[in-house]
Amino acid sequence: MRAAQPAARPNILAIVTDDQGYADLSAYRHAAADISTPNMDRIAAGGVLFTRGYVAAPVCSPSRAGWNTGCYSQRWDPQPGWNPGLPDDVKTLAEYLKSAGYVTGKVGKNDFGRGYNRQDVREYPLNHGYDEFFGFSSHAHDYYLLSEEAERKTPDRGGRHATGVGALFENRGRKSLESGYATEIFTDWAIRFLEKHRAEPFLLHVSYNSVHHLIHEVPAKYLRKFGVKPIPNYDPATMGKYFDYYEKYAQLGAINDEEMRKYYLANLNCLDDNIGRLLNALERQGLARNTLVIFSADNGGAPEGGGNNRPLRGSKYTVFEGGIRVPFMMRWPGSFPAGKTYPYPVSTLDILPTCLEAAGIPAPPSARLDGESVLRALTSANSSPADKRPLFWHFQQRWAVSEGDWKLIQNPGTTVKPTTQIITHGDPAGNQPALFHLGDDPSEQHDVSSRNPEVVRRLTGLFQDWRRQMPQGDPGSRK
After folding, report:
1. Which residue range is the domain that position 408 belongs to?
2. DSSP secondary-structure letter at 125?
């Protein structure tokens, strides 16, 4: 075990949820009426709640690449889409902290869009700064089927979704589990990590796959609580391809709109209970006061997944606010005020520079970070200079730029059938850019571009200047 470091260097616990809706955190005033997340709310009650917290992309992989590096993934991905990967010459938060003496661990979902189910690639956690990893390295994974036997029996185990069936990675090996539920198993591992490394500074990244599909896979007590029937788990002996099973239950059809929301609530309730267990372990080990806890979703609630992004328009896959504004909180007792609401724009790109400043680690100028530390703003009553910078998004044929309350967006439609939790109406923002004033119109209903041509020109110029800094390619060509 490494020698303990001075207490002034904070531990860092990063909790990332998957496809959690903007209205699905009860600490928010705008929370949906059916939402209760008392354990997640503990982070906000003891720290800072961001009402305008943004991710770098409206889907998992580029969003996660952004917060892990503090850089827009467009800096190395000329075709901004699903599969940015991690380049060798861009350092991750784990690498910065490990080089400064932190022990680093990651548990749960590992997804950068490339290098799935391989240990010999940059994207594998032990190859970009983590000392320990336990979880899966793919876009999704079944919550229950975690054994080598299930993987062996799945006929399309090399297919699109079957990669999410079977044994989990454990450091340089694999671990087969005959029983258990992923959310609970990941929490167990995280708690053991805390206990093992309580005497040394650590980075613990807890990357849950909840509440990503298949959200109907939830322990029975949560299904009973929300009044929905259990759906049989996939059985390779009787159900054919896993791809067909996944597609059947990952969209509306076999599960109706009302049921989808209830399965989502059951899955989220289980997740909240497990986050409570993790926070309790932090307190039990005497680590809570000197641990910077960071919580965020990876993107907005999925249109077909039961999440609620209201009052925002849109969902995962879109660059409307519902796809990129997410539940986001930070807690550091004694350093951040308790119960503070931060109403200014902040990005998950800011996580890396904020953590580095908190740990006293300088980033070299060559890092070219796109995020900025918000540490001083959160430890004082002042806003951050980062509040006034423009933020950019580019995913396939969709793009947006925001500056203050202004947002210019071009968002061609999607073909996914959404649940009724998702706002889809409003003035179009398809083939021509639309301008919205988020202060007056947070739901992006009223395009005011015709009345503000000078704002359109300025924001268009900002976006074009930003894109010129990035390698060029054909957006949307990667699937």
Report:
1. 391-468
2. G
CB-based contact 66:97 (threshold 8 Å)? no
**Sequential pLDDT tens for the chain (479 residues):** 343 333 479 999 999 999 999 999 999 999 999 999 999 999 999 999 999 999 999 999 999 999 999 999 999 999 899 999 999 999 999 999 999 999 999 999 999 999 999 999 999 999 999 999 999 999 999 999 999 999 999 998 766 554 689 999 999 999 999 999 999 999 999 999 999 999 999 999 999 999 999 999 999 999 999 999 999 999 988 999 999 999 999 999 999 999 999 999 999 999 999 999 999 999 999 999 999 999 999 999 999 999 999 999 999 999 999 999 999 999 999 999 999 999 999 999 999 999 999 999 998 888 999 999 999 999 886 777 778 899 999 999 999 999 999 999 999 987 688 999 999 999 999 889 999 999 999 999 999 999 999 999 999 999 999 999 998 764 433 33
Buried/exposed code over 361-387 (b: 16+ C-beta within 10 A; e: otherwise): bebeeebebbbbbbbebbeeeeebebb
Last residue of a domain, one of 352, 387, 422: 387
Closest CA to 340 of 40, 43, 55: 43
* pTM, two decimal places: 0.95
> Into how many domains does the chain fold?
2
* Domain limit, last residue, from 387, 408, 425: 387
> What whole-number distance in Å separates Cα of residue 289 and Cα of residue 10?
9
The CATH code of the domain that includes 127 is 3.40.720.10
* Helix 182-196 / helix 257-284 crossing angle, nearest 10 deg: 10
Instruction: Identify whether 25 is preceded by a cis peptide bond (ω within 30 of 0).
Output: no
- Dist CA 93 CA 273 (whole Å): 27
Residue type, position 406, single letter: W
